[in-house]
């Protein structure tokens, strides 16, 4: 594109210690029969110890694919990382040997999946699966690993852990299974946890329990947490910063309070306006018109322009860079200033 | 508009549900099946639905809300209890009589991916109700009717020959709604109609449903687990827990003046998309999980997770009625709540 892109939202030039995780200009594509699906198109973010970054987006926005690329669990083929860097404590994971990555995965960065029932092995007891972490990574004896498994289950507050360690995943409720997933991620005390929609499959009362637990454990271990979600409500409670993704790009990146108070991208504004609120009964809901684009045919210019109430001719040709809105805050919208002031769009499209 | 609907006392209900019960037998043995127990999915539910209103039913998974939907549609036979449609008990109908009633009660399903037959064109899917009820549209007129319906739900009428996989999730849900509308029903039962959709598309479908309700004077039973959406669309809301109704009232009574501890916990657990509000809110975090409906607790079903539970709660089943302290008052807390120790508490923090 003709425009110059400003550097990453949080450049670490001259910083005393490298960030826990620093993703720079990451590109991922899927080569399918129907063409190349560009799932991630230049995503940059960083996470420090003890910090929670929420990555927010709808299905197909590239939020989960980014996470899979970070963990190195992308299905390849058809998925390929075609550009960028993933620096974990300064080391570029994309250049690391497969054995090195395997050592890091699980031990230093771990992932919590959305659907615990399909992420856990149905024919192994949870104790065996939890103990496996210690057997594989630390060469621990089976009996000791079992004892550690009980300890872990107690730490994620599973009642009667000692008697339930031999139970199989289907014998647990959804919330309990998600706790086991969390326990598994925590087993080796990683520095970074990536949680992909950890509470989406759970009921609200259980969701609250699980988010609470996750937040407590993060504080206790001073971990970095990347929380991938589509739920603006869950994010508001726990995140420090939010990166909003659309069509494989980060369209807005901001501290949580700023983003909710005054969004600087029309997509974020639209999302916030389109969710009904529990504490107020509004009139008609605002609906973002149209549909998210197909990743095989992302519109030129700003990918959001066909749905955007502020779009002008320029938006269809000129891809917006990450404009600096404030320190630590960016927006990929040419008209972020008027969006921030929530002015009426210049004309009704 | 909402105001006039909440004053529903003087109007005749279109649907009356009385002590509806559904127990699914648990059997043991292969050859000689012996009943060893029952899953009490729905255990004595009563409510009314008025013309033109939306009754929201909320609850967690396993509370029986989807079974209620199936019972209202007569897709499941009730173990006990009655469903009166315009004064006639439809829960025991079968054959031709049932078919006639079903024309007026239609359903929109949760998952737009599995509720549409992938081998049928959109025209066939939406037109299928006319095959079953030929009197609704004369044969030569069907194509035009189907195209009209597509137009009503905001889809291009030229898509009539396309297949479901050529549509996005939101568009498919519109197809499901068009099918539900085909026979001009009076009541539509919606079982989690937007929970499979993305946030930005959810709003489009909700707005569509509200528009259709005004246009065709529809009554909705709107079943969902998302409390924010239910508040947005409903005139009255019922909260279910483990097969029973815990509390029922107008949206304002339930959301701003809940008296049942379960409703209060449920509402306080809903994340609010505003960090300023959610930080200031008091959260009630329940311990444990929902007990199994095969073996529900005695007395009040919620007592095992309730912070107010006392001996009385285990011994005596609380009735769904206006709690004694609020009886004969104008207080918004004076609505039906099945709790011995009902107290008003504002957990949503509404101004």
UniProtKB/TrEMBL annotation, chain B:
<protein>
    <submittedName>
        <fullName>Dipeptide ABC transporter ATP-binding protein</fullName>
    </submittedName>
</protein>
<dbReference type="InterPro" id="IPR003439">
    <property type="entry name" value="ABC_transporter-like_ATP-bd"/>
</dbReference>
<dbReference type="InterPro" id="IPR027417">
    <property type="entry name" value="P-loop_NTPase"/>
</dbReference>
<comment type="similarity">
    <text>Belongs to the ABC transporter superfamily.</text>
</comment>
<keyword id="KW-0067">ATP-binding</keyword>
<dbReference type="Pfam" id="PF00005">
    <property type="entry name" value="ABC_tran"/>
</dbReference>
<keyword id="KW-0813">Transport</keyword>
<keyword id="KW-0547">Nucleotide-binding</keyword>
<dbReference type="InterPro" id="IPR050319">
    <property type="entry name" value="ABC_transp_ATP-bind"/>
</dbReference>
<dbReference type="Pfam" id="PF08352">
    <property type="entry name" value="oligo_HPY"/>
</dbReference>
<dbReference type="InterPro" id="IPR003593">
    <property type="entry name" value="AAA+_ATPase"/>
</dbReference>
<dbReference type="InterPro" id="IPR013563">
    <property type="entry name" value="Oligopep_ABC_C"/>
</dbReference>
<dbReference type="GO" id="GO:0005524">
    <property type="term" value="F:ATP binding"/>
</dbReference>
<feature type="domain" description="ABC transporter">
    <location>
        <begin position="15"/>
        <end position="267"/>
    </location>
</feature>
<dbReference type="InterPro" id="IPR017871">
    <property type="entry name" value="ABC_transporter-like_CS"/>
</dbReference>
């Amino acid at each position: 594109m003709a425009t110059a892109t400003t550097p990453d939202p949080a450049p670490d030039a001259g910083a005393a210690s490298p960030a826990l995780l620093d993703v720079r200009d990451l590109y991922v594509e899927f080569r399918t029969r129907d063409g190349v699906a560009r799932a991630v198109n230049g995503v940059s973010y960083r996470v420090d110890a003890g910090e929670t970054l929420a990555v927010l987006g709808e299905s197909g926005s590239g939020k989960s694919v980014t996470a899979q690329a970070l963990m190195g669990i992308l299905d390849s083929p058809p998925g390929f990382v075609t550009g960028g860097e993933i620096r974990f404590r300064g080391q570029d994971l994309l250049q690391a040997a497969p054995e090195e990555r395997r050592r890091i995965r699980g031990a230093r960065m771990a992932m919590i999946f959305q659907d615990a029932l399909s992420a856990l092995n149905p024919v192994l007891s949870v104790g065996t699966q939890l103990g496996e972490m210690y057997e594989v990574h630390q060469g621990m004896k089976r009996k000791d690993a079992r004892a550690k498994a009980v300890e872990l289950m107690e730490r994620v507050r599973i009642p009667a852990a000692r008697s339930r360690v031999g139970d199989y995943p289907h014998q647990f409720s959804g919330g309990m299974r998600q706790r086991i997933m969390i326990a598994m991620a925590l087993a080796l005390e990683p520095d970074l946890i990536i949680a992909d929609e950890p509470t989406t499959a759970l009921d609200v009362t259980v969701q609250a329990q699980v988010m609470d637990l996750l937040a407590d454990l993060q504080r206790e271990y001073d971990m970095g947490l990347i929380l991938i979600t589509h739920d603006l409500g869950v994010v508001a409670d726990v995140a420090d910063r939010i990166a909003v993704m659309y069509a494989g790009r980060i369209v807005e990146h901001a501290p949580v309070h700023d983003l909710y108070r005054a969004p600087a991208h029309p997509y974020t504004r639209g999302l916030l306006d389109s969710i009904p609120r529990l504490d107020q009964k509004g009139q008609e809901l605002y609906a973002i018109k149209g549909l998210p684009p197909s990743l095989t045919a992302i519109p030129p210019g700003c990918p959001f322009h066909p749905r955007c109430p502020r779009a002008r001719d320029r938006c269809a040709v000129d891809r917006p860079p990450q404009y600096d809105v404030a320190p630590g805050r960016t927006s990929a919208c040419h008209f972020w200033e008027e969006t921030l002031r929530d002015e009426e769009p210049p004309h009704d499209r | 508009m909402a105001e006039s609907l909440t004053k529903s006392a003087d109007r005749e209900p279109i649907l009356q549900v009385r002590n509806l019960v559904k127990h699914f037998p648990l059997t043991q043995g292969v050859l000689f099946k012996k009943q060893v127990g029952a899953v009490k999915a729905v255990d004595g539910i009563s409510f009314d639905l008025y013309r033109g209103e939306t009754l929201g039913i909320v609850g967690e998974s396993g509370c029986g809300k989807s079974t209620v939907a199936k019972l209202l549609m007569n897709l499941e036979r009730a173990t006990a209890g009655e469903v009166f449609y315009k004064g006639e008990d439809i829960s025991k109908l079968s054959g031709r009589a049932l078919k006639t009633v079903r024309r007026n009660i239609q359903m929109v399903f949760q998952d737009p991916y599995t509720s549409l037959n992938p081998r049928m064109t959109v025209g066939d899917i939406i037109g299928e109700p006319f095959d079953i009820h030929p009197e609704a549209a004369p044969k030569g007129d069907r194509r035009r009717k189907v195209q009209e319906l597509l137009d009503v739900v905001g889809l291009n009428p030229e898509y009539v020959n396309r297949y479901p996989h050529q549509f996005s999730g939101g568009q498919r849900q519109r197809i499901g709604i068009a099918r539900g509308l085909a026979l001009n029903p009076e009541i539509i039962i919606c079982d989690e109609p937007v929970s499979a959709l993305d946030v930005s598309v959810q709003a489009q479908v909700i707005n569509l449903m509200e528009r259709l309700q005004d246009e065709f004077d529809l009554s909705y039973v709107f079943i969902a687990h998302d409390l924010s959406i239910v508040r947005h669309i409903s005139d009255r809301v019922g909260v279910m827990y483990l097969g029973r109704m815990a509390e029922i009232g107008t949206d304002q009574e339930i959301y701003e003046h809940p008296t049942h501890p379960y409703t209060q916990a449920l509402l306080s657990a809903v994340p609010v998309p505003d960090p300023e509000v959610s930080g200031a809110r008091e959260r009630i975090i329940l311990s444990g999980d929902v007990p199994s409906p095969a073996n529900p607790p005695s007395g009040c079903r919620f007592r095992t997770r309730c912070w107010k539970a006392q001996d009385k709660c285990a011994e005596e089943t609380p009735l769904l009625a206006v709690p004694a302290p609020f009886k004969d008052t104008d207080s918004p807390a004076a609505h039906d709540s099945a709790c011995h120790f009902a107290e008003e508490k504002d957990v949503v923090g509404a101004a």
